[in-house]
Amino acid sequence: MPSRARERFAELVSGSEADLNLAEAALLIAQEEQPELDVAAYLGRLDALAERVRSRLPEAPSFADIIQALNTVLFEEEGLSGNQTDYHDPRNSFLNEVLDRKLGIPITLSLVYIEVGNRLGVPLVGVGFPGHFVVKYEGPDGETVLDPFQGGSRVSQAQMEDKLRSMYGPNNPFASQLPKLLAAVGKKDMLLRMLRNLKQIYTRKEDFERALSVVERILLVAPDHPVEVRDRGAIHHRMGHQQLAVRDFQRYLQLAPKADDARAVRAVMVRTMAQLN
Q: What angle do the packed helices 187-204 and 22-31 form, to 10 degrees?
């Protein structure tokens, strides 16, 4: 039977993007593993952080004033920072743990930054830059990219180009695609990125029960995503749930009949079906 956290998460992500409470949905990801988590209390903490920032602003603050106050409260006073020593700790993906431990990864620190900024009326959005999630503000004077993993520092175009070169080499295929790479991502996409981080962590640890729980929530957000259906089947297979594995492999082959791994998945499915008969 689904937990209350799962039911509420499903309710939130089934609605429109505009109406989705991103912070609540993120906290529900953690609450499924920590049933005692008080979601309302942590939403209140985000409200309180916004009020602390507001109290430091002049009467008619500029964007620069707000960002300076936001960075002061979140990174100097609260001490939020990127977890450089244990990047793959699953707690880095739980919003309550980020607020308590003051440690996070780019996606969760960006979420805090966006949520506090939005409470101040600043329309911050997430950007899924390759390998490093950041935040963007689109104002009358153009775009400003900010990196909460680095204390809310501004990121120049030259720095982003350097990042791409360091990741993909001088002839990287993304060299001419910087505007596309800086496109805003939706709230549901942010939740998917958080969940996929957790899926990867739990799968590497062979904690298949938790990995399955994560994939099931991914599929609440993106029900017909072929790779996630396939991966759920693979997890079921590893856990000995062979009928469920076959069901997911069949669904995957329906969704992606020409996938590069379709033949390999079909072979695993046929062998599994033979074992069931």
A: 20
- Bridge partners of 142, per DSSP, are 139
The pLDDT tens digits of the residues spanning 89-105 come to 999 999 999 999 999 99
Q: Can you give the C-alpha Rg of the chain in angstroms?
A: 21
pLDDT tens column, 49-63? 999 999 999 999 999
**CB 118, CB 26: distance < 8 Å:** no
Asked if 95 and 43 count as a contact pair (C-beta separation under 8 A), the reply is no
* Model-wide pTM > 0.85: yes
| Beta strand pairing call for 81-82 and 103-104 | parallel
Instruction: Among 1.10.10.60, 3.30.420.100, 3.10.310.40, 1.25.40.10, name the CATH number for the domain at 188-276.
Output: 1.25.40.10
